[in-house]
Amino acid sequence: MVTFFGHWEHMTRVLIKDVDRLPSTAPPHEGRAASVMVRPKALSRFLQSRQSRSEQIRIHNQPWRTSVTLLISDLIALLTALALANLAQWSIFGEAASPLYLPMSTLVVFLVIYACAGLYPAIPLSPPDELRRLSLITTTVYFSAAAVMRLAIPSTEGYWWAALGLGWLLSLVTVPTARGVARHLCSSRPWWGYPAVILGGDEVSETVVRTLIEHPEIGIKPIAIVVDSHARQPSVAGVPVISGFKHIRTYARKHRIPYAIVPMSVMNDRRTGIIVRRFSRMFRRVMIIPPITHFSSLWVYPVDLGGLLGLETRYRLLDPDRQMFKRVLDLVVIGLTAPLWLPCMAMIAVAIKAESKGPVFFTQSRPGLGGKGFQIFKFRTMTPGAHSELESHLDESPQQRQEWTETGKLRYDPRVTRVGRFLRRTSLDELPQIWNIIRGDMSLVGPRPILHEQRDQYRTGWALYTRVRPGITGVWQVSGRNTLTLAQRIHLDTYYVRNWSIWLDIYLLTRTGWTVLHAQGAY
To answer: Nearest 5°: CA angle at 5, between 468 and 183?
Structure first.
């Protein structure tokens, strides 16, 4: 599933990049340069004249190819899961024939329900939402097939049910993996996704354009920025700026452009309705970006309040019932994986004692749930007495003092032992925090435990941080780890609390394995 999860990495990089750049509201620019009029023919010549492949933007309005690509990947994934399940049944029980012909005959049902759930072409679904829909639908269809099989063949042998269950489990892995491979291979193709125009020329609009250009896997490809009157620059990231709505109307109809993105920061209340209605007549899909930055974005639902538009959102992680469910899930996962981490911890302890004198574990007070301090456990990765050496080392190196101030870590820390450097690169020094989870101090996934002295830097994010348990892994751990500044980590931690769901936790846990194996951002 790791390729599928690359989609999330790109999204979180966008969050990181724009944490200090996105304004809460963007007022119209005054005193702009003279208008740059780009007419349709000129726009075509501009697009075709781009020589650099990374900047070349061509209009290909063939979204059906994206849908077909994902449909084929789903079909291959489902067939692979069923074939492997049937092979396992034959290898273990010596039975080649099974009632798996029944679920195989429901492949069309899989694809139809996937389509009804908006999974073709799944643009612009977030990875956790796509994973949620895929998992729920796959489970529903498999269990429905099992019920039909039970009614049609009451004498079905037990090992046939085992094969069916194995097919279900494999499908939960193969389907998102195949989609990830398809997205990785095809998202850079000119026909992938939908062409789109973006309204306005402020910072938010430019951020949207650069984000979509840098991350084609999202599936929305900007081909023009439309401003009402004056343009500050002829293009943004290779995308031309068009002055006036009348030209884009002609161009949109000619090329059948389906998508328009409208940041509300470029409009006042009086113009919003007019602009949206006008664009709704020109484009099949109009995406509105509200001028809100510190807000839940993954699980927001529109609500009709007697003709008024409402956006419903809740901080799910702040619900005591959901926190209890998350706690139970942590303990279940730890119990099931105990045969893996217990021997590993024993070997690490022996290696630490063999290299240097001193304790195996390092403990330190950190703020946790409710702001109360707790002792966090780690494997010792530094020489004994390393804490007392920090200030003298930072005094000798102003550059490293600046690095310590910005990130709270040092890339080249002379106090780290050889075994400790390996543990840090693989994040195995965090394994003793399993005991913190058992005690109830921490969770598998959550905001990373911070130092007490970093509390003032959290500012408004501190209230959210203290409402949940810190985690061994989280959003920033899979989005750059030690390469991020403290401000970026704070932003991603608060993002996690606002957007939590069990699907986000599942995604982050799996993504953590990929990050650890590749030592991304670790030192």
So the answer is: 150
